[in-house]
Structure to design on (106 residues):
């Protein structure tokens, strides 16, 4: 049970952080509010990677307070950070494609 709680908490924390990161950094590019070019993408990529490190360091530094398995929690957080960001982006792409298809029909 200890490992299950640690995994669920890590997944939830990682997914929440990935969502916040996606909304603030990547969504404007996906929705076309910011220009998508090689020059404009470098800084957001660096910020995104730095935030990943900060998020994982937060889990690391709170390991003495956290009553559940630290190893399971940090692995679950890392997995959620890497997968959730792609899922949010994929969801927006599908939504935009569906809206474009409906616009082209009507």
């Amino acid at each position: 049970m200890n490992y299950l709680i640690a995994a669920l908490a890590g997944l939830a924390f990682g997914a929440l952080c990935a969502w916040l990161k996606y909304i603030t950094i990547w969504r404007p590019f996906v929705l076309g509010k910011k220009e998508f070019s090689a020059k404009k993408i470098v800084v957001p990529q660096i910020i995104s990677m730095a935030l990943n490190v900060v998020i994982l360091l937060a889990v690391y530094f709170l390991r003495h307070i956290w009553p559940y398995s630290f190893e399971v929690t940090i692995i679950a957080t890392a997995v959620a950070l890497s997968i959730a960001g792609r899922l949010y982006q994929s969801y927006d792409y599908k939504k935009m494609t569906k809206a474009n298809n409906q616009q082209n029909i009507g």
Summary: The chain has three helices and no strands. The mean pLDDT is 86. The first helix runs from residue 2 to 30.
